[in-house]
Every structure is written in C-alpha cells, then in structure tokens.
Automatic annotation (TrEMBL):
Gene name for this UniProt entry: ENOC
This protein's name: phosphopyruvate hydratase
Protein's organism: Helianthus annuus
Listed NCBIfam families: eno
Residues holding Mg(2+): D287, E336, D361
Annotated Enolase C-terminal TIM barrel domain residues: 184-474
Details of cofactor binding: Mg(2+) is required for catalysis and for stabilizing the dimer.
Keywords of this entry: Glycolysis, Lyase, Magnesium, Metal-binding
Catalytic site: D252 (proton donor), K386 (proton acceptor)
GO biological process: glycolytic process
Top-level taxon of the source organism: Eukaryota
Length: 474
C-alpha cells in the first residue's frame, strides 16, 4: 500500500485538517496539545485490554485489582472484601489452597478476568455500563456469580465505570448520576466509626460499632473536621480511663477499649463529644450486628466472655426495651441490624415504633429479593449497600433505586477488607445516598473515601450541597 493509499484509506488528511481548523478557531495557546486532544476524541470508544492481578487488602488478605485500557488511557479498580456473606450475597472466588495465603488466594479470579472476561468485553464501549455488566453476568451463568467470582466481576465493573466517565470527559460521580438517571450531586453525611466491638474487636463489647454522624455541619469538609476532632478527643478519654492500650485500633480504624456494655461505650463517646463543643451537631448510630450473638431466639450479650457466656441472654422483646432506653438516653438516630438476620418479626415490630432509622445489613445482604421482601413487610427503613455483595455497578444502582422508591435511607458501606480505591465516595455522590459508612477518620484505606469526598466538594464548588440534617432522604 502506498503512502497516499494509506492516507486515503484512513482519511488522515481530512481528520488532520479538521483538527488544525478547530485549533485555529479556538485560538489555542498550545495548538499541538489541542490538535492531539482533538484527534483523540475522534478515536472510537472501546475497551482495548483488561489485565488483572492479585493484591492485598487492608487486612493483608488477597483481593483482585484490574487495569482496564481504552484509547483514552488506563483505568484501575480493586474489589473490597468482607467476611463470607452467607447464602444471600454474591460469592467471592477464593483459591482454597491452604498452603498459599491460608486458602485466601484469588489467582482463579484473576485468571478468569485475564482469560474469560477480557475476551468477552474487549471492543465494548465503556460508556455502556449496563451492557458490560450484563455481558459478565451472562458469561458467569450463576445466580451468585460463583463461576467467575463476584470479586473478579466487580473490579472490572468499577474499572469500566471509570473508563466510561473518562470517555465522556466528566467526573466519575457525574457519570454514575447519569447512569442512574439522577441529577443531584449531594455530599453524604459520614458515619464515622469511633468504638468497635463484636467480631471486629478483641474486647468484650457485644455490639460491633458506635458511630457519630455530623449532621450539624454545613459542609463535608466541616463534617470531616468534627469527626477527626471527636476521634482524637475520644482517644484522650480512653487513655485517661483505661490506659494507652485502650487506644489500639481495629480493622476499620475504630478504637477498642476493654469495655463490656453498650452504655459504657456510649458514655465514652458522649464525653468525647462534650469536649469538642459539637454536642448539638453530632448524632450517634450503632451497628449491633446481632446475628453474631444470636443463639436460637435469644441474644447473648456476653458471648465474647467465656466465663460469662450464657448468663446474659436477652429475648427479642428485651432487646427492644434496651434499644428504646438507649434511644431515650442518648442521641441515637440509627440502629443497624438490631436483630438476627432471620428475625423478621422483631425487626418489623421495632421498625414500626419509628424510634430511629433501622438499617438492614445482614437482614438484606444487598440482595434484591430480600430488599423487596423487607419493603413489602416494612421490616426496616434503610439499606446498607455493600457493592461486593452484588458484583456490578449496574446492580448497585438498581437496588438503590428500589430503596429510594420505598422512601428508605441508603448507606453506602465499606468492608472490613478495603483497598485505597475511592470508588465508594463517587458512588455515594452520584447516587445521592445521603449516608456513607467508611470507617474511622483513621487508616489510609478508610480516608481514601473521605478525602475523595473533600475533593469532590471542592470540585463542585458553590453548587456543592452537604445533606446535613436531611441525611435520611437526600
């Protein structure tokens, strides 16, 4: 093929002339850069390559990372991981070889991306998120993504979402809002973990988390300041009462003093809040994670104390009385998983009292069928969304729509095994969830999400809106 034939085949002369004319019309100060960008925009949008690898999450346990390439560049994403999600959540594919990472390796999931998923989606337009996600779901062919692994599918889905935003030349949160049909870019109230217990900590506290919500802040940046200051005041309070060892942090950055009762933990938090001067601007949320200490139809509040376990059983009715008293005595506005994941009757009754927001985590597992049942039965009034329990961005958007249509609150949630991927921050703004639970204002993988929200607020500028007191229904 001659040079002229090559130029004619690809219409290079016309494309270059168009780019030069555009640069002249724009009177650009850097015509070479302008022409380069103009030509790049003329290239058809397509995924050109997908490459996965095994990395470690915040717990030192393997997870999946993906580099997805288009003509616009490379886009990276990683999948968070948590405790096994049970019978209702999507399946994280693990190698099971006890000789390597104690069986937690993800080389099979990585291989599935490099050999199967890559072949299926290379050539697809990254803007078409739904089609990319559906292609992976169809390739897997199982209800819970057990063939390819939800960890493999999710990492690719998030990377594709980033590529789609780049193709449209819009911020990631804006692209997510477009995908969901939404338009309001609101900054969520952060639920900062202050004290950890349950199976997340080595103390004797039965409930899993005590959190604060800076609903009285005017901006997200101010909310971060409130959270950080309260966290550090709490460290001082705990050090005074229990010694420096009480300030050790756990997986999500929460402090874990050697306490045993709900009230003991709440009193520590209230003292810290008192020292900040933010008393009227901070509310409290608790994650009970009651499934962890449910035995039959009873709840063992001393399940972590071998010498006491079995001596402090509470019935569902008694737990309701405990929650009612706590909500009366402390500024608690949200309780997550107050009962076992199958204790539908108690959670329905408690939700009906309208004492506080009742968040479904173990009850729902981000599973559309469980969410639909909970909506029909008024079993709770807020969804805790863990994207890895679903496996794709598209499915996350769909369940958030379900929750919002039911007038529920929505909490975007971290996992115990996180990475420095900040996707959850953009997801919370793009879907206008109003609430995000990303751990304590401590540890890099947690702050990756919070710091990204600071950047987003700055980028939006004067149009930025922090939900504040409207955190329930943003």
């Amino acid at each position: 093929m001659s040079v002229q034939d090559y130029l004619d085949k690809h219409m290079l002369s016309r494309k270059i002339e168009d780019a030069v004319n555009a640069a002249v019309r724009a009177k650009t100060a850097d015509p070479v850069l302008f022409i380069s960008n103009h030509m790049r925009k003329a290239v058809p949008s397509a995924i050109t390559k997908v490459k996965a690898r095994q990395i470690l999450d915040s717990r030192g346990i393997p997870t999946v990372e993906v580099d997805l390439y288009t003509n616009k560049g490379m886009f990276r994403a990683s999948a968070p991981s948590g405790a096994p999600s049970g019978m209702y959540g999507a399946i994280e594919l693990r190698d099971g070889d006890k000789a390597t990472y104690l069986g937690n390796g993800v080389s099979k999931a990585v291989k599935n991306i490099n050999e199967k998923i890559s072949e299926a989606i290379v050539g697809m337009d990254p803007i078409l998120q739904n089609q990319i996600d559906q292609a992976m779901i169809d390739l897997d062919k199982t209800e819970k993504k057990g063939e390819l692994g939800a960890n493999a599918i999710l990492a690719v889905s998030i990377a594709a979402c980033r590529a789609g935003a780049a193709e449209k030349e819009v911020p990631l949160y804006k692209h997510i809002a477009d995908l969901s049909g939404g338009g309001n870019h609101v900054l969520p109230v952060p639920a900062f973990t202050l004290i950890s217990g349950g199976k997340h900590a080595g103390n004797n506290l039965a409930l899993r988390e005590i959190m604060i919500l800076p609903v009285g802040a005017q901006t997200f940046e101010e909310a971060m300041q409130m959270g950080s200051e309260t966290y550090h005041h709490l460290k001082a309070v705990i050090a005074e009462k229990y010694g420096p060892h009480g300030c050790n942090v756990v997986e999500d950055g929460g402090l874990a003093p050697d306490i045993t009762s709900f009230r003991e933990g709440l009193d520590l938090v209230m003292e810290a809040i008192g020292r900040t001067g933010y008393t009227n601007k901070l509310k409290i949320a608790i994650d009970v994670a009651a499934t962890d200490f449910c035995i039959g139809s009873k709840y063992d509040l001393d399940f972590k104390s071998p010498k006491k376990s079995g001596q402090n059983f509470k019935s569902g009715e008694e737990m309701i009385e405990i929650y009612k008293e706590l909500c009366k005595d402390y500024p608690i506005v949200s309780i997550e998983d107050p009962f076992d994941k199958e204790d539908w009757e108690q959670v329905k009754f408690f939700s009906g009292l309208r004492i506080c927001q009742v968040v479904g985590d173990g009850l729902l597992m981000s599973n559309p069928k469980r969410i639909e049942r909970a909506i029909q039965e008024n079993a709770c009034d807020a969804l805790l969304l863990k994207v890895n329990q679903l496996g794709t961005v598209t499915e996350a958007i769909e369940v958030v729509k379900m929750a919002k249509d039911a007038k529920w609150g929505v909490v975007i949630s971290q996992r115990s095994g996180e990475t420095d991927d900040s996707f959850l921050a953009d997801l919370s703004v793009g879907l206008a969830t109003g609430q995000i639970k990303a751990g304590a204002p401590c540890r890099g993988e947690r702050l990756a999400k919070y710091n990204q929200l600071i950047r987003i607020e700055e980028e939006i500028g004067e149009q930025a809106s922090y939900v504040g007191e409207n955190w329930r229904h943003s």
